[in-house]
Amino acid sequence: MTFTVLARDGERIGAATASRSLAVGASVIAVDPAVGAVASQAWTNRGLRALLLGELRAGASAEAAVQRVPEWDAGEALRQVGALPWDGIGAARSGVDISAWAGARITPDAVFVGNLLAGAGVLDAMATAWADAAGTDLADRLLAVLRAGDDAGGDARGRQSAALLVASRAETVLDLRVDDHADPLCELARLRRLADAPVEVPAAHG
Description:
The protein is an alpha+beta fold. The chain has one domain (2-195): 4-Layer Sandwich (Glutamine Phosphoribosylpyrophosphate, subunit 1, domain 1), CATH 3.60.20. It is built from seven helices and ten strands. The protein has helices at residues 24-27, 47-57, 62-66, 69-72, 121-132, 138-151, 184-196, and strands spanning 2-8, 13-19, 29-32, 36-42, 79-85, 91-94, 103-107, 110-115, 161-167, 172-178. Helix 5 (121-132) runs antiparallel to helix 6 and helix 6 runs antiparallel to helix 7 (184-196). The radius of gyration is 17 Å and the shape is globular. 49% of the residues are buried.
């Protein structure tokens, strides 16, 4: 029902997601500037995000964190999660009962995960877009990844919402959400441009 990327470039870490579900940004992705980025999707259990970040904060690897999901959640067969710390390889886990096509791709600095997708090519396109956009601003790179996934078929049901989170090691620097829109990725890109636009200060009158 959703496709998501968690990624880092050395200076910043972030997450971006898109779905045919309402308000995907409120329920799927989370970033802790001091720890890393995580996602919980499919039949989403929002509470898994805090548990995953807690494991990373305690020093667990991403793989160890995602493998604890069955301990935390009796509905683990319906959950799909991903985790990416500032250091070390990321990881993902897909429950056996989530809707096909579902799966994940892991690269040295990114995790791509999705379910109820048009096919495996969605994640392949996302991974390719991530590599092709190397050296660009992380927020723009994440948007390019989402666009590539959407162009490859994205969520098999269509489009509705999207979100983008970016953090430095000290703070969240970008938190944008499109909760309900006919073309959420175009709207998210518009908000991204607005976030970078200079603030106009009204001229003083006297």
